[in-house]
Queue: 4 jobs
Job 1
Amino acid sequence: MRILDKYILKKFLSSFALVLVLLLPIAIAIDVSEKIDRFLRNVDLTVGDIIKDYYVHFVVIFGNTFMPLALFIAVIFFTSKIAGNTEVIAIHSAKISFTRFLKPYFIGATIVTFIALGMNHFVVPKSNKTYNHFIKTYLKKKNYSQNVTTNVNLQLGPDEYIYLKSYNSNTNQGYKFSYEKFDGIKLKYKLMSENIRWVEKDTTFRLNTYKQRFLLEDRDSINVGIKLDTLLNFRPKDLINVDDLAKEMTSFELKKYIVQAENRGINNLNTYLVELYKRTSLPISTYILTFIAVCLAAKKRRGGMGINLAIGITLMFIYVFFLKIAEVLGAGAETNALVMVWLPNIFFGILAIYLYLRNAKN
């Protein structure tokens, strides 16, 4: 690695770290000002608990969220600075091509990308779980309806279906439960109960006031009882519609959940697929945003660094805007989640190629 590569790579990583370190305290200060009254209302909360169970994970989650923005601003900042000092002109005068000039940026982007991939797939989901639990426990108003899902229908397999009138995720109890097993289109077995409860210790479901109906060739057989512990092919998390559920699972857990849900006949899993694909597409955008930033800032402009930062930040917000639209559209049942998640990267990738070719010719 040349001295030039080491110089640019050092500037790349140090500027990125500096911008990230500057952004996070601002985010924390804003968050503290918004939530300080709710912290104080919970007398059992200590400062240590707030830092350990909330703000440590807040830094992990929002640091990961700010990473592309921090990288983009950092690259524009230090590249504009060396361009303003005519260092880029000196580099080109030494017969170093623009493509060769991009090498240390590529190395830096690769380092950040691998860090972001590890964070997105494994670290952030675990932080989300603790972070969301803290919010639900201490910061949200206790509302019974928030924890109750009504009219739950779930297909467990090709011929197995369950239905619940309502399910409470806090107590892990459901009401008006029924389970049906078919042979083709013919009903073979039905199990009903007034109440169903998940028993974590035994990993079984406990049915209270139940009725079993076996449909035989020549007759029906009916059994009734007060209590029945049984194994069923689903878990409590399959019964609740929680937007944060996908964000709280690591990628291996999320893939496993998607496969199980597909086997149970659940049709629209795009919300989970969007979350899974986004964990890879966002880190890969590091390369695209880096090359756009270098192409914008590598030339000395009238107006200096301010013009470059204004153009760059505008492009960054356009990217974030398209990303959010793509996520919403990708969650729809009739769309291809993979295509929608990668669409912003495709468009901005084309822009990066155009800017690169224009700079490479000069």
Job 2
Amino acid sequence: MGQDQEDGERLQKVLAQAGVASRRHAEKLILDGRVKVNGETVTVLGIKVGGQDHIEVDGRLVKRGETLYYYLLNKPVSVITSASDPRGRPTVVDLLKDIPVRVYPVGRLDYDTSGLIVLTNDGELAHRLMHPSYGIEKTYRVWVQGPVGIHALETLRQGVLLEDGKTAPAKVQSVSGLLKRTNRESKNDSLEVLEVTIHEGRNRQIRRMFEAVGYLVVKLERIRFGPLVQELALRPGVYRSLTGDEVKKLRSSVKL
């Protein structure tokens, strides 16, 4: 074990691959002094470990080659996207009953936002799906008091200047007419419904984008995450395992 060791892999990557946590969280575990390698506490990043090294987190031996699990959840509103909440509010992990391992949400959905979220113990995949360099697209269905003007639509498409910088161009289209024709929305509903696709993951990004162009988001739902698309059978609060083909597509989307 050592920073200059040619063989082996970085400790935080090994922890992520073992399903201990996402790579970012694994780095924090190391910096917080909660990880030991061969009985020695490691507190710096960059250490490499080999197959014979014994790794412990909080005194528990890390098992490598652990079976990886992948789930897709339709998150309801009023649920926290976290493994736990100090205020005792329900979390996405609470909704996954009788699963054999501890899994973690990939990215976040706001408390008042519903829709698709992936949970897994595959830390390396989770890290890449959340990393902006891979540009994973997410599509949201957005309800606002309409109609949304042409200038506002073009601003959303070209990029909106927010306090943390200008957003990347987004794909935006109105689907109000389509939903009414398929009886998925009331024909007397005064709200305009749009679908917005982005590849960034800033905090409350969609809501802030619409607020910046003068519209308040009344309801927000994520209907697509990368290659995974919302389905009628997956009602709010319901989850299912991803198929092998879906896992393959997710991994392929981030070059794994």
Job 3
Amino acid sequence: MLRTEDGGYLWQTCAIPPGAEKLDFRGVQAFDENTAIVMSSGPGDQSRLYKTTDGCQTWKLIFTNPDKDGFWDSIRFDFLPKKRQSNDHRSGVLVGDPVNGQFAVYTTQNGGDSWEIWAKDDEVNAYKRLGPINANTRESLFAASNSVVVTLRPNEIRFITGGEGGSRLFSAEPHNPFDNETKFKFTVTKLPFSSNKSSGAFSIASRQTQPYKDDLMVVGGNYESPDSVGACAYLPHRENNSLGGVVFFGSERQRVISSTTPPHGYRSAVAWDADQKLWITVGPNGTDISNDDGKNWRPLTPSPTDPEDTDKNWNALSLPFVVGPHGRIGRLRTIDQKAAVTKKP
């Protein structure tokens, strides 16, 4: 693990959490210059969360997967406006592969210090009352880029699936308060991705256009065939109803729009660049951008002054940074007709 305080010019080596030398760390969420949570992925108790409050000099184990058959895939926090949050009150979500036929979803309301599984029916805490999160046979999540889940607002999450059981979008949304039904339910939208053990939806990103209006972009493909044509689906926001601007599940069907020109290979991560007003997606064989909401993707190629592989061998995005295998780190620069991701040592 590495840490930077100057935008990526210099990198410091972090301490390794005690007993975690052989764990596979897939996710990180930084809150400020000193506070962060990292997630390891693996079967059973190899899925863990560690937290630092001193700039990664020391770590505290805060949560271990309680399911021996479980496997964690992604962690995400929602940052509220400063006037509504403190360092101790941040909501987050953690998702994992199915256990006993249901996806594992955990939430925190205190910056990750404690976690609770979202109950199917909790009469004590009504806001947590949820419908079941049932998985298809051989349906799973992919942990390649820590980006199979997004939080649009506190407790309003979206996560994507893949594998032989097919690719779907799960959306936890509030129910109409006047029908006295379960407070939250997961609605399901089928995604047009191929289905096998190495294929499906790998990454989801959101873009808020207006309050309570969020567009989604999903990318993926087949990680065992990275040069095959990639997969992409754009899901524009649904119109709000009249009850406070909130979209209640079932109020409008989610549209799914496939690309005319998809990404040029398997893609494991996607993000919205708000400064440059474009979507960017990365994978082992290249980088693509779209400025028409995923209808057409065009590849980025290195400029004459870049290393020839500057566009390739990337796994995950956290703009402006991009990371790849073997400690590879890059920083996105302003894109023009010959733009490329600039590689950093």
Job 4
Amino acid sequence: MQLSKITLLKDARLGILGGSGLYNIDGLENVQELNIKTPFGAPSDTLRLGELGGMEVVFLARHGRHHTITPTDIPYRANIWALKSLGVSWLLAPSAVGSLQEQIRPQDMVVPDQFIDRTHQRPLSFFSDGAVAHVTMADPFCPNLARLLAEEGGRLMPEGRQMHKGGIYLAMEGPAFSTRAESNLYKSWGCSVIGMTNHTEARLAREAEIAYASLSMATDYDCWHESEETVSVEMVMNNLRANASLASKIVRATAAKISTTRPKSTAHHALKDGLMTAKERVPNETRKKLDLLTRPYWGHFSNQ
């Protein structure tokens, strides 16, 4: 479906990026599947528009619905651009992580508030080819959105499992899990969890002026915890299945809160003071590619 033909999606305001084990979202009603073309290639999968928690929601499986895309190969820019094109203003990102701290047990959940980036093969910006922008990433997650997510998650956590508010997400390249030396290093830095996707999404979401928050679902103790068995795909998948149903409930409850509170975010005007290049100096092809993002500040681009 071409963007110009989409006429009913102006109220599709909440985006959900499903990670490992969460390839759809329970309770999504009146679903339409949309193929969105972007200047940055095809998204990971079709985008599913539906209703959840009293508002319109766009769901996308970041690895594809059959988990066919590695963390490095996820088309991050296409995914965020497509969500932005459908009017998404808030973005929730459930994802599997390893725990780097004793108190964060497998099947606990974390709503982090900081990142450390150890990736090295990712496109980290929409801006290049003659256009430069610098957005602030001091607080990479939206505090208001993260607060709602943590509150709803804490209310729904069953006995014996805990919601941790705040923490540092260590982003690694993958797809292999950490060495024991790496895991112990990241633990010594005070990092809370380790994952492979959220940092890249958060940086691009900030450039797209979308508020972003992560629901990090602990599946294991990475490999630093020598009294626990070494992390394996089987272990991860077993805990993912235990987390998936609860994550859907938390996302649905958070969607209901967002539908009534419409939380404000500094992310919603992140480009206002971030655009460095004068629009007259930007090549037409680049202006065209970035028009969806820069239109509020540079005006609608037309090369006719």
